[in-house]
Amino acid sequence: MAITDWPENDRPREKLLNSGATSLSDSELLALFLRVGTRGQSAVDLARTLLTHFGSLNRLCHAKPAEFAAVRGVGLAKYAQLQAVMELARRALAEQLVEHSLFDSPEAVRDWLRLHLAHLPHETFCILLLDTRHRLIKAVDLFRGTLDQTSVYPREVVKLALSHNAAAVVFAHNHPSGVAEPSDADRLLTRNLRDALALVEINVIDHFVVPAQGAPLSFAERGLMY
């Protein structure tokens, strides 16, 4: 049955307009993005097929072009559209961080970090450079490592922060293994970076560990910054 034959209140578009986007399931949201299905499949059916094939919405959104296009009913054009939507979401969240203090929108920080780091197959160390009001100046991926380690040099971190006249910083790195718990090496690195930046009066506010799935872990919330 085509979606146009469904009761009006059950159609994803009408449901969104009446009750908001949060009222829709993953498959319904994805169906709105797809717009059309295939022969014998509505857009919602195709959306369910995609979610089943990739196992999760996150894996779907971060699939490789060939993996995505291999599913019947979608192709590289739709893949490009999906990546554009993802990048728009990242940029919209980044704008919030530029316009407001990080403390005013802590969930925006986590959401941006998830979109930016969670899908990466390699470990990446990111630094958020902040002004005196804790608004984002710039986010920089400073070091890239293997699946289980990253070499981070305090001298390069201090140099970067000074070059942007940062008053404070937030660190973040991902754990592609999916484990959010910080390692002893993560804790030691945070202390070393904090001590190095303290010499030039730059405050380290937090360090986030971003797992492949789930919410980023905050060192500050766990009492691990001291």
Description:
By secondary structure, the chain is of the alpha+beta class. Helices cover 44% and strands 15% of the residues. The protein contains 9 helices and 5 strands. The chain has helices spanning 12-19, 26-34, 43-54, 57-61, 65-69, 76-99, 106-117, 154-163, 184-198; strands at residues 124-130, 136-144, 168-175, 203-211, 217-218. A 5-stranded mixed β-sheet has the order 2-1-3-4-5, with helices on both faces. The mean pLDDT is 86.
Give the structural class. alpha+beta
Topology, number of strands = 5
Oligomer: single chain
Distance between the termini: 60 Å
What is the global morphology? Answer: elongated
Instruction: State the helical fraction.
Output: 40-55%
Annotation field: number of helices: 9
Query: Order of strands in the sheet with the most strands?
Result: 2-1-3-4-5
Strand/helix succession: HHHHHHHEEHEHEE
Characteristics:
single chain, 226 residues, alpha+beta, 9 helices, elongated
Short description:
This protein is α+β, with helices and mostly antiparallel strands and 226 residues long.
Strand and helix map with partners:
Layout (H helix, E strand, L loop, with lengths): L11 H8 L6 H9 L8 H12 L2 H5 L3 H5 L6 H24 L6 H12 L6 E7 L5 E9 L9 H10 L4 E8 L8 H15 L4 E9 L5 E2 L8
Helix pairs in contact: 2-3, 6-7, 8-9
